[in-house]
Sequence to fold (266 residues):
Amino acid sequence: MYKLMFSLIVLIIGYFSFYTLFYIINLANYYYWSFLPAIIILIIFIPFILKHKVTKIEYDNKFVYKNFLSKKYWQEAFSEVKKLKNLVMMAALLSLTLITKLLTLPSGFGDLGISFGYVFLAIGGLLYGPVAGMLMGFLVDNLEFIIFPSAYPYFIGYSISSMLTGLINGLLFYKRKLSFFKIFTNRLLVNFFINAILGTIWMGIVANYHNLDMYFTRFLFIALPKNLVYLIPQSLILFAVFKSLAHVFVRADLMAVEVKENIGLF
Fold:
């Protein structure tokens, strides 16, 4: 049943993502054409959905937790930011995140761009947890403002959004059973609530929007479409990165092998 539900979610999200994209580029009969790429994406996933088997391990141990409500989970998360080795690795991930800002591409949605900085922040949350994720989020936003100043003044709201992103990365990825569905959930939370909703509010504040219509226009026609269109591609990229680098993380003693063995679609 859960496989059928996930297939339906992939189809629905895929359809509305391409529906939004085709509507914006004014493609004729966009409501029909949107089905084609959505179905293709679903067909690509079907073999993985049918063949996938989850390795069963004991939860709530020092390697993998059922959830983030355990006291020990937070003790370990706080301890991660006290180790010099971890701080050096976090600094390297921050540097890579900032470098990606130089490679930002236009998204086709107003002034919003595309970069791959989210990948390195997600790796930080995966390896070092929610506390480190929040710290990295705060630092990357402030360093970005200093290194790449914009036409807008400094606003703490963007730092809050970046910290919340780091928190979500850590809560869903750190010492947890990893799956594509969980990665998809992560991107859905970040893209919709943080990037689209909070991003629209912050932009309205710094750009001095005068009425609610300006907020709704940006949200409905720029922020929301952009984040929906790139939702599945970003999820696929993160899943591929986690899956391909897991053995490297294990050999470098950055990840427990028990976590590596539980990276799958579900």
About this structure: The two ends are 12 Å apart (CA to CA).
